[in-house]
């Protein structure tokens, strides 16, 4: 390693030699940087999983524009929407079709003592409102009352129980005092506020939730005419529909606003962002402590070199050399441990935590920057040192 660094730097690798001079201190520093990397990578993983799971329901909607209540920041909160808004929207030039979308949460006791929370979506299956593999066949199945299709990626239960679900051999489930026949499946995956999804027809939905009425859906999905400008239709809808109770967004815009709300306004998103900042601060503090201690321990040697003419740039090079080496040495174990933790969390919770090359590269660059910043701060004492005062 010393030979390689000598060739790369064109001089004796003083920083590396100072690091390996005290193996316990080097091990502690590497462990600290690795710990900071694990913190950052885990927080990024959770934050990315949150963003990913938020958009999953939007991706399966077959629509161009989404109407929601003015106080609805996500698909599952806010007030209901008067169905009258759907008929008003249909009168706006450029709108080709519309359908109601009902949303509720259902607690299903899959096994004695084990409850599963499902997002339940209800709509008219003949309107074909979903983009799913085998979606047309699933929608035909839902036209039969009290039937449902369920998410095979639902957490906390053995979804193998739905493997044979079909009209000829439905899986029977009891929920809210009713018996539902699961006649098909789809794959989506739960998020942070529910374990999975279930889809039913609007009529089945209203029987399952008798406190809901047909005239008050949660959202209204709109299609625009072929060739129509979605942004222009959205603008026309905003002028036609009352902003006091109706929010109009293009579907992609609605998903982006949902992501922004959940990551900046809700506690879970704020906690992940705060954890990310804490991880960075921990890394900076640990590396700063290591480098500042190293500078203090070798201050007399640095002062001697300074007295015989070595410039500040030379000393900065040594400290930055140590900082970058610590970043690289700490990043590798931090990355490997994080990959293992991603896998464990995904197996346990079903959340989509995946390590990709851009994320790893970004964290590596951030780690180098973090260590370089710590190194720059650690050299402040050396900058002001007067050799005459040190001896």
TrEMBL record:
A GO CC annotation given for this chain: plasma membrane
Domain of life: Bacteria
Membrane topology term: Multi-pass membrane protein
Keywords assigned: Cell membrane, Membrane, Transmembrane, Transmembrane helix, Transport
Upper classification of the organism: Bacteria, Pseudomonadati, Pseudomonadota, Alphaproteobacteria, Rhodobacterales
Pfam families assigned to the protein according to its UniProt record, in alphabetical order: FtsX
Name of the protein in question: Efflux ABC transporter, permease protein
Domain ABC3 transporter permease C-terminal: 274-386
Subcellular location: Cell membrane
Species this chain originates from: Polymorphum gilvum (strain LMG 25793 / CGMCC 1.9160 / SL003B-26A1)
Regions crossing the membrane: 38-58, 268-291, 323-345, 357-378
Main subcellular location: membrane
């Amino acid at each position: 390693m010393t030979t390689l660094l000598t060739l790369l730097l064109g001089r004796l690798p003083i920083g590396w030699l100072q690091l390996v001079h005290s193996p316990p201190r080097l091990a502690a520093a590497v462990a600290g940087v690795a710990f900071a990397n694990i913190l950052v990578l885990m927080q990024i993983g959770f934050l990315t999983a949150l963003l990913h799971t938020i958009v999953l329901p939007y991706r399966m909607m077959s629509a161009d524009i989404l109407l929601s209540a003015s106080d609805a920041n996500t698909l599952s909160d806010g007030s209901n929407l008067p169905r009258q808004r759907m008929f008003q929207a249909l009168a706006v030039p450029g709108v080709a079709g519309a359908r109601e979308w009902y949303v509720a949460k259902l607690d299903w006791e899959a096994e004695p003592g084990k409850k599963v929370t499902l997002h339940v979506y209800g709509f008219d299956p003949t309107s074909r409102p979903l983009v799913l593999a085998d979606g047309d066949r699933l929608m035909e199945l839902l036209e039969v009352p009290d039937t449902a299709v369920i998410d095979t990626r639902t957490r906390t239960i053995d979804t193998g129980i739905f493997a044979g679900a079909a009209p000829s051999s439905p899986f029977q489930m009891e929920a809210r005092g009713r018996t539902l026949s699961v006649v098909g499946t789809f794959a989506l995956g739960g998020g942070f506020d529910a374990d999975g999804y279930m889809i039913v027809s609007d009529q089945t939905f209203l029987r399952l939730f008798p406190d809901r009425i047909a005239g008050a859906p949660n959202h209204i999905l709109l299609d625009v005419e072929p060739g129509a400008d979605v942004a222009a239709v959205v603008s026309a809808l905003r002028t036609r529909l009352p902003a006091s109770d109706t929010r109009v967004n293009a579907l992609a815009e609605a998903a982006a606003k949902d992501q922004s709300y959940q990551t900046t306004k809700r506690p879970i998103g704020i906690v992940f962002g705060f954890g990310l900042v804490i991880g960075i601060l921990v890394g900076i503090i640990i590396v700063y402590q290591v480098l500042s201690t190293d500078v203090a321990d070798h201050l007399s040697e640095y002062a001697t070199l300074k007295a015989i003419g070595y410039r500040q740039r030379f000393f900065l090079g040594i400290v930055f050399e140590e900082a970058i080496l610590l970043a690289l040495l700490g990043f590798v174990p931090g990355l490997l441990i994080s990959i293992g933790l991603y896998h464990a969390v995904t197996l346990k919770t079903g959340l989509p935590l995946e390590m990709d090359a851009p994320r790893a590269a970004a964290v590596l660059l951030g780690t180098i920057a973090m260590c370089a910043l710590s190194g720059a701060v650690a050299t402040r004492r050396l900058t002001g040192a007067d050799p005459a005062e040190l001896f």
